[in-house]
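Quick illustration, no need to memorize.
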Amino acid sequence: MKSKFLLIFLILLYIACNTIAQKGISETRFIQISKIPKPTAPASLIVSDIIFSDSAGNNNNTLDANEKAELSFKIKNEGLGDAYSCKMFIEEPYKIKGLLFDSERYLGNIKQGEQLKLKIPIEGTMFLESAHPSLKVRIIEANGFNCDPFEVSFQTLKFLNPQIIIADKHFTTQEAGKIKLAQILNLQLIIQNIGQGKGSNIYIHFKNPQNVYPTGKTEFYFETIEPNQSEIINYDFFANKQYVDREIPIEVVITESYNKYGESRVFSVSLESDLQQTQKVNIPSSTHNAIIITEASILSSVDKNVPQNTFKNSKRFALIIGNEDYTKYQAGLDDENNVPYARNDAQIFKEYVIKTLGFLDENVYLIENATAGEMNQKIELISKLVAKTGSEAELMFYFAGHGLPDEVTHIPYLIPVDVRGSNLQFAIKLYDVFKKFDETKAKRITVFLDACFSGGGRESGLLASRSIRMKPTEENLSGNIVVFSATSGEQTALPISKEKHGIYTYFLLKKLQETSGDITYGELAEYLAKTVSLESLKINQKDQDPSVQTSQEVSPIWKSWRFR
């Protein structure tokens, strides 16, 4: 009987406690809501000084993968009353993969006249995709005096991996003649980053076979190696007289921070090899060592020993454009839509223009990865300079990058890096450029186009889905103009990868190098037509036939023109 009463008591006690708890919760909620004062005057939240910054990274105004940035702005209550319990909400409607940020933040009360400076951390992960996200920011005030929403758009760039390789190697010895045991040998390596991303925490470790010993350290370290940067390593070793093999293999292992973009290779040197006869190992004497030899193994033959002439012509002007990286400026493109080596083409061509052809440095304008705005501005600038110089002025224009024809009219366009191939209204019509140059009344206008206008490109073309090649239309040229083009008709302008140039530009530079620029236009045209056509078939197994187009005014005389 007692247990029955005890059970009833416990049940009643539970019901009573639960009722009190529920009442307490209701009272608490009422108290929290009542803490927000009723407005006595309106608040007015105003946002200003909106800034996107990636200064913690490479400061290129783009959020790269594995990079941190921030969005900062000021918010001020310019109303007559206080703002209460303000909250900030951030959303990105496109759901960009690999983009991290806090979606909401409690700001609290903002008094009348008070100003806050807010910073929103943004991070791009390893899996960030190239896109153009837009952060939509809303600030809500408890009494309904919300801030006007705003959006901030910026560019994101997908992960660009490094690729740390051994670009070249040389074995050397301290004594001339045959390589022998108990003799110190040197293995010189060039470590190069041929990827598009920065390499970090790079270790190069050397491993010797038994009875082979290092004279010093076996591990080398570099904190970072930038894209296209190279470093030289010298590793000394020797074998004792118990070593029995005919070759000494040295294993080299490269690791970096991701543990996937290095390489491992084995280099062997033959014992008793004669220095003068061996074809397998290059062992220069100490007087031919180090930088000159290692530089020669990295650079193309046309990138070094650029002929330098003493004469200068102050009335010569040049505009040089190398458009290579279209993926950085256009979300959705792949690396094969870029134009390999176009920047290198333009950079080295500039050296020849100044050193070999006698242009003043201040009269030469180089743009790399030029946008539509930059291209139009520089075309306008160079045209004005030439026009104001007078009838003795000369103009040279060089373009390496994508060209495309209109699908309907087949009219050719130069494509800036920020213009899509499917939307040519912002591209630059090639013959409009020629017309503007003609209006300068220049004595001589020389154009080099290492681009095709058929819809193709050095890789897959800007419109990778376009399988039909189109022959661009040609218009009659006017003025004192000669146009050297890398292709004919529906052909594609191709690279020569081992030289890190477009094949057309490579042989153009090669001829200028061989002749020190002392060559006629006709001789150059004949050489390019013959050499590029043949070498393209050998190297790329595709036709590429350079062509020349001129105005009627210079048709009888252009071949006799000289470059210097």
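DSSP finds seven helices and 29 strands in the chain.
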